[in-house]
Amino acid sequence: MRNRILFLVVLCLSGCSISDSHQPLPDLYKSWKKEGASDNDVKAALLSCGYKDPYTAIVPNISLNTRAGYSLCMQNKGYRYLFGPIICEQNHQVPLPACTKKEG
User: Fold this and answer.
1) Domain of 50?
2) pLDDT tens across 3-41, in order?
């Protein structure tokens, strides 16, 4: 019985530490950074790289390869993605054509 109570206390306390995981995603343009670039510069770069909306990355019916191309374009413009590696820097079972263009 004591172990169950201890388990429940630990479980409840751990819920407090993961509360940030329920926050909405930041606007897409806030996910990319380049030294000296304003918010408007980032938005313009996103649009020129193919993104349809600089505020959201959630777009249905876009292939992973297309998304990879968008992020490579941003990287080639000198931007850095703030939330981990871009798609081409992640391990994929099948290489994406957009990523192989980067290497070749």
Assistant:
1) 24-103
2) 555 555 555 555 555 555 677 778 999 999 999 999 999
